[in-house]
Amino acid sequence: MDWMQFIIGLLDKLVWPAVVVFVVVLLRKPLTQLVPLLKKLKYKELEFEFGRELKAVSKHAAGAFPELKRDQKTLLIASADHLPNAAILESWAVVDDAAERLIRTTRRDIDLNVTTRYKLLQDLLIKDKWLDTKKSKLFDELRQLRNKVAHAVGYEVGTAEAIQYIELCFTLVEHFNTLIGTADSSAPVLVNR
Asked: Is Transmembrane helix found in the keyword set (predicted)?
């Protein structure tokens, strides 16, 4: 290896890191403006999710200010026209919340923060006989469609399908809310003596 091959080899190894550093320095200001807009950052096994704090704050705000609560179903149906996939994910979140509240009426200490949360919810609802065969099939189909929308690359849903999905989700939520009402009223009342 002579000195020219050595210099070419050295440049070959150093040029890409130098270009990356140069681009980062050059685009530093626009990149810093984009960082707050990130929702999720994943690099190999390192993963960050942002926005969880905002969800927690908005839940507390909805409880403190009842006027912030709007008709979710109407809002989701309106958003289905432009963002059908997002409307499906949001309507499933309403089902998820109602199912969790129902399960917690009888199982207060259960840990639902698992990777297969929705399947666990379904299994618990069936096991506790909150869902009959038809309703459990509906829950399962809604769950599977939600998973396709959330995880399948390029999977798009039309407006009509999103609206139908929202309607089915809210039918299931109404069922859960009815059961929550009967579960709360049938709970034993403790009297202090």
From this structure: yes
Query: Do 157 and 85 meet the contact criterion of CB atoms below 8 Å apart?
Result: yes
In the predicted model, is pLDDT for residue 52 greater than 60?
no
Residue 43 backbone dihedrals phi, psi, to 5 degrees: -135, 115
Q: Which of 77, 102, 70, 55 is nearest to 169 (CA)?
A: 77
Neighbours of 127 (CB within 10 A): 11
Residues 8 and 96 in one domain: no
Confidence of residue 193 (pLDDT cuts 50, 70, 90): very low
Tell me: do 126 and 33 sit in the same domain: no
> How many structural domains comprise the chain?
2
Find, among 31, 36, 8, the residue nearest to 20 by Cα.
Answer: 31
Contact present, 120 and 111 (Cβ < 8 Å): no
pLDDT-derived band of residue 127, with 50, 70 and 90 as boundaries? confident
- Domain of residue 173: give its range: 70-185
- Provide the 10 A C-beta neighbour count for residue 145: 17
Q: Name the residue with higher pLDDT: 47 or 78.
A: 78
Residue 96 counted as domain residue: yes
